[in-house]
Amino acid sequence: xxxxxxxxxxxxxxxxxxxxxxxxxxxxxxxxxxxxxxxxxxxxxxxxxxxxxxxxxxxxxxxxxxxxxxxxxxxxxxxxxxxxxxxxxxxxxxxxxxxxxxxxxxxxxxxxxxxxxxxxxxxxxxxxxxxxxxxxxxxxxxxxxxxxxxxxxxxxxxxxxxxxxxxxxxxxxxxxxxxxxxxxxxxxxxxxxxxxxxxxxxxxxxxxxxxxxxxxxxxxxxxxxxxxxxxxxxxxxxxxxxxxxxxxxxxxxxxxxxxxxxxxxxxxxxxxxxxxxxxxxxxxxxxxxxxxxxxxxxxxxxxxxxxxxxxxxxxxxxxxxxxxxxxxxxxxxxxxxxxxxxxxxxxxxxxxxxxxxxxxxxxxxxxxxxxxxxxxxxxxxxxxxxxxxxxxxxxxxxxxxxxxxxxxxxxxxxxxxxxxxxxxxxxxxxxxxxxxxxxxxxxxxxxxxxxxxxxxxxxxxxxxxxxxxxxxxxxxxxxxxxxxxxxxxxxxxxxxxxxxx
Amino acid sequence: xxxxxxxxxxxxxxxxxxxxxxxxxxxxxxxxxxxxxxxxxxxxxxxxxxxxxxxxxxxxxxxxxxxxxxxxxxxxxxxxxxxxxxxxxxxxxxxxxxxxxxxxxxxxxxxxxxxxxxxxxxxxxxxxxxxxxxxxxxxxxxxxxxxxxxxxxxxxxxxxxxxxxxxxxxxxxxxxxxxxxxxxxxxxxxxxxxxxxxxxxxxxxxxxxxxxxxxxxxxxxxxxxxxxxxxxxxxxxxxx
Lengths: 501, 240
Fold this sequence. Notes:
The complex is a heterodimer. Chain A is an alpha/beta fold. Chain A folds into two domains: 10-96, Alpha-Beta Plaits; 128-498, Aldolase class I (TIM Barrel, Alpha-Beta Barrel), CATH 3.20.20. Chain A starts with 9 loop residues before the first strand and ends with a strand. The radius of gyration of chain A is 24 Å and the shape is globular. Helix content of chain A is 30%, strand content 16%. Chain A has helices spanning 24-28, 55-59, 82-94, 181-194, 229-234, 261-267, 287-300, 317-325, 346-351, 356-369, 387-396, 405-410, 433-436, 441-465, 471-474, 488-494; strands spanning 10-14, 34-37, 42-45, 65-69, 97-100, 115-117, 138-140, 163-165, 169-171, 198-199, 216-220, 237-241, 252-254, 275-277, 307-312, 331-335, 344-345, 377-381, 400-403, 481-483, 497-498. Chain B is α/β, with parallel strands linked by helices. Chain B has one domain: Glutamate synthase, alpha subunit, C-terminal domain (Pectate Lyase C-like, 3 Solenoid). Chain B has four helices and twelve strands; from the N terminus they run βαβββββββββαααββ. Chain B has helices spanning 11-20, 193-198, 200-210, 214-218; strands at 2-5, 25-31, 44-50, 60-66, 80-85, 101-104, 125-128, 141-147, 168-173, 186-190, 223-227, 237-239. In chain B, strands 1-2-3-4-5-6-7-8-9-11-10 form an eleven-stranded mixed β-sheet, with helices on both faces. The longest helix of chain B has 11 residues, at 200-210. Chain B is globular. The chains are: A alpha/beta, B alpha/beta. Chains A and B meet through helix 3, strand 5 and helix 7 of A and helix 1 and strand 12 of B. Strand 5 of chain A pairs parallel with strand 12 (237-239) of chain B, so a sheet runs across the interface.
């Protein structure tokens, strides 16, 4: 035997009593799990190929299918758990670096779930958002330090460039290449309808989406793919990607086989060649160098657009953010260690970076202490899962949240975490035309709009409950938060009291 | 040609004036102003003095000529156009440039041509008349980099670690390069006449601009370096 047999993670349970041999499952599975056995007139499955994406389960007209965890188990061992052993087998068989997708799935603390939100009782009436006006609009960008007046005494009202959002949420960066044309189409259309922004990621902007420019953040990463004058000119804001929460400190590469057709055209590189984004920007080794890139982008776009600098949440994030806030950047985006990815080395994704909740609290506090909080707006991402997470993030000091995994779920993602295969059965993380067309952009954008409208209502209800009628009054209002089951140190970093205090 | 005296102008003011101008421009007394010509798509700009970092960043068709030296990051993410430098250039020249031409009479610093690309009919070209620093053509993904080493007494006309991560494009070094260690994923070989024909036009242009004799330049061995694969990391991963 050359390789060690790796037992399948899942078991495909098919009820033969219900199965009508319609072969839908076979047609729906790009991984080739299901097959028709002619001689017996039966459907059979090859579980070794199953990624538990639930496509066949969702499409089986007689509900004959279930995907369950494989009951076949190695001997129980609290130290050497199943995944650890499987990973060793895979590496021993291949010599490869383990590659995973989507956010860190490990049972590490989720601080959002240990923070509770206040509500008004008796002394300060709550507000009913169905009756009272509530402001969820936010403006991202540098805010002036003071009110200034001209020689004639009139207020000077020229502001640095701002982006306006109808609610404090944006769709975060996902490149065309890592996700499909139809996924981008759905995000762009939903952002336009919602009055928010989506983000091209580092793969350039497809020509069809230029009309959505005023709802688009264009990204500039170390590979500079698809970055040219018209691209910069088209976006409502420009984001410099320094890091990503799922893989801080490393670059990325989209393998050659995915650089085909439109993806190649949009990235502006030849078909079939690897799209390599080096880990660092090789012209940025300091805050001064970052300032140079920020200003070169501002010069190229005539100071009309805010520049966002996106960094991963890492140990010294407060000091880093303080530097970035002095680099001329208008907005800092911080991506926590649970942020998603189309592909990242498993060890990096699961072990590098820090939780966004702690990073956000530390950064907001540091910028306030240094009197430069108004220099920048803060966007945070890295597993913001619900309206409650958004409200908690705002109260911890964020101006807005980046949301990607939740948006993909709205598009039909079932979090099977195998984006890196390029065979997404839901038409999201794939470039195969037959799979891409499974995602209908019109229906996808409709579901995104539904999700965000629901979140907006929930944000208003949560704010109203606190007696707060605008996002502006919630931002950095940590008195509205209490911790449960947190240590003194954790409470100190989060800048909140324990429940009961 | 209109003149702008850059003396004591900050970069923002200078660049705003450049954008507003409709004629070709000569900048006098340039002293370290950054981002000159950023994103410009037409006009010729002649610069007297020393421009600062990121000269011609995102350049989109304009033509910039510098009488003396330039600093770092010239032609960052350049899309089209031409940058001609009669002196030396600093580090990271032509970072991710996708099109256009950079001609340098003198030497280049570290990381010249890093992540240079190519796209459809766009094939960026960079010719360095003197020598280039370390990490020349790092991550090169397309385009053509030529280093001539003119007037160099030493045989090594590039620094250490050229072509690290190279996965596209071509590099021509006017030297036998026997003492240069190239990474494993590239092939370095003596350039044939056919290879040299590929860079003939750009060399003729270089000679015309800087008054060199093409015959003298070609009267030396050239080494051509190409990557073995455009997918250098294909075998590196296992799906988890």
